[in-house]
């Protein structure tokens, strides 16, 4: 494990991966097999959120991920909001890049079973890639399919706890291949926060070292969550719109089982597959609690300033979480009446 006092030396593998991924989504389809052979290792593993799951090798990635995505979102493009990279601080090691991106295009064909809207869509995604010798050897991708269903007018959840909105980019507009800041220090700040977060007051849902003097969160923190949770502002908004309902439902949750933690400039990113284990002890998003054991895949992206967290983007595989509860969000969404303009 890398000593947290060591400063990361960021090499060009970030730029290489950034160029590869943007090329793969927009290149002519006939060029994709050759491009994938150059961009991915022959034995690459590509784990995607439900219902896609594990893909192995370039051909499987082409057929199981890239071609369906490009077919569903016509003239698809990436719009990266964050793209960072560094050596992995966790014991697994390796050089990793991580991104918050939107895949955008006109949603004209089904995607992994989700019915299209016929309109422009922004499919948000969190992504982690391990890079070896300029090629991608391992990938973890969470697609916020419930939000895509919401954009299509067929939201499969009964409500959302916070504001449902497009993920904004960082307030500083410097999240893609950052050139300034201390990545190790940013990750130190995030790890200090994570170390205290697992213990909480059941009355206030607060945790030590989070806010106030010596806290890791800025008073004006922004938290951007997936469909069903939504986004919120300041710690009190985070507690009201996410933390309280989540901890009531899963009070024994244990997180931090991360395969990757990286820091780059004023940014840091962590992910577990799964990260959390928990039991379902109170109703959540309209689903009745039944005590069953659950796991949750998690990706967190942070922007830090002056030793505090300013913004946090969160991708959670809620399609898979709800499936563990016995709910097929895609089938539920598809059963809803189409938007009024869909028949035109």
Describe the structure in your own words.
This protein folds into 2 domains: 13-151, Nuclear Transport Factor 2, Chain: A (Roll), CATH 3.10.450; 183-331, Nuclear Transport Factor 2, Chain: A. The protein has 344 residues and is an alpha+beta fold. It is globular, with a radius of gyration of 19 Å. The protein has helices spanning 13-26, 32-39, 58-72, 145-151, 183-197, 234-249, 318-324, 329-334, and strands at residues 40-48, 53-56, 73-87, 95-107, 120-132, 135-143, 217-224, 231-233, 260-264, 267-279, 293-305, 308-316. The strands form 2 sheets. Strands 2-1-6-5-4-3 form a 6-stranded mixed β-sheet. Strands 8-7-12-11-10-9 form a 6-stranded mixed β-sheet. It is built from 8 helices and 12 strands. Helix content is 26%, strand content 33%. The termini are far apart. A hairpin with a 2-residue loop joins strand 9 (260-264) and strand 10 (267-279).
Helix-strand layout with pairing:
Layout: H1 13-26, H2 32-39, E1 40-48, E2 53-56, H3 58-72, E3 73-87, E4 95-107, E5 120-132, E6 135-143, H4 145-151, H5 183-197, E7 217-224, E8 231-233, H6 234-249, E9 260-264, E10 267-279, E11 293-305, E12 308-316, H7 318-324, H8 329-334
Describe the structure in brief:
With 344 residues, this protein is of the alpha+beta class.
């Amino acid at each position: 494990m890398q000593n947290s006092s060591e400063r990361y030396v960021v090499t060009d593998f970030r730029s290489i991966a950034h160029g590869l991924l943007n090329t793969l989504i927009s290149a002519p389809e006939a060029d994709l097999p050759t491009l994938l052979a150059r961009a991915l290792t022959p034995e690459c593993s590509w784990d995607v959120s439900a219902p896609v799951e594990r893909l192995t090798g370039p051909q499987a990635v082409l057929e199981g991920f890239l071609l369906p995505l490009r077919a569903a979102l016509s003239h698809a493009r990436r719009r990266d909001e964050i793209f960072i990279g560094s050596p992995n601080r966790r014991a697994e090691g390796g050089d990793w890049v991580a991104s918050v991106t939107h895949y955008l295009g006109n949603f004209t064909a089904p995607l992994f079973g989700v019915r299209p809207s016929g309109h422009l869509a922004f499919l948000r995604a969190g992504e982690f890639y391990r890079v070896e010798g300029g090629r991608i050897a391992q990938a973890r991708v969470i697609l916020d399919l419930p939000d895509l269903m919401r954009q299509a007018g067929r939201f499969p959840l009964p409500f959302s706890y916070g504001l449902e909105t497009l993920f904004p980019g960082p307030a500083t507009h410097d999240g893609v291949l950052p050139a300034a800041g201390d990545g190790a220090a940013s990750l130190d700040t995030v790890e200090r926060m994570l170390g205290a977060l697992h213990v909480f007051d059941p009355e206030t849902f607060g945790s030590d070292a989070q806010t106030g003097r010596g806290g890791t969160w800025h008073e004006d923190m922004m938290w951007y969550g997936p469909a069903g949770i939504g986004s919120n502002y300041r710690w009190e908004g985070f507690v009201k719109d996410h933390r309280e309902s989540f901890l009531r439902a899963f009070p024994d949750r244990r997180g931090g089982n991360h395969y990757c933690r990286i820091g780059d400039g004023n940014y840091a990113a962590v992910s577990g597959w799964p990260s959390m284990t928990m039991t379902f002890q109170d109703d959540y998003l309209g689903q009745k609690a039944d005590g069953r054991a659950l796991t949750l895949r998690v990706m967190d992206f942070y922007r830090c300033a002056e030793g505090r967290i300013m913004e946090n983007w969160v991708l959670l595989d809620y399609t898979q979480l709800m499936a563990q509860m016995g709910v097929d969000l895609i089938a539920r969404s598809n059963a809803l009446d189409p938007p009024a303009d869909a028949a035109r």
